[in-house]
Amino acid sequence: ADDATAATAATAGGAEAAEEEESNEVQAGEACGLTPAQRFRLSDALASIDEEKVAAAYKAWGWSWSGKISEFNLIRVVRELLCIAEDELSDDNVFSLWLLTKQADGFVPVQNL
Predict the structure, then answer these.
(1) DSSP characters over 30-46
(2) pTM of structure
(3) How does DSSP classify residue 11?
């Protein structure tokens, strides 16, 4: 019985953590002024990239890669790498995303996206 109780508690804890993470993502999206459709589009696009793809894009653009994305480079990443047009996600929305995810040095580590 104790093993079953522990397993149930662990499963519930994992579900609560997943719900909290999803809630945080929704709150961040809402803070960026994103609609549910925009949040889905951005989330879907971000799921298709990893740090290697971002680094390869930077190399193709002639930029050095540090593992972080600047405010100005985030627009190009969103438009060209994620293929999200301005009519789908405004520059203001991208700027808000940068504000929410940047670190003190003004850059966004790719894993924060």
Answers:
(1) HHTT--HHHHHHHHHHH
(2) 0.69
(3) H
Residue 110 vs residue 28, higher pLDDT: 110
pLDDT of residue 83: 95
The CA angle 58-67-81, to the nearest 5 degrees, is 40
Element (H, E) at 69: strand 68-69
Burial class (CB in 10 A: 0-12, 13-18, 19+), 84: buried
- Token pair 């298709």 in the structure block, residue: 48
Half-sphere exposure of 88 (CA within 13 A, CB side): 15
User: Alpha helix locations (H) across the chain?
Assistant: 2-31, 36-47, 51-60, 71-76, 91-101
Question: Which of 41, 47, 34 shows the shortest CA–CA distance to 84?
Answer: 41
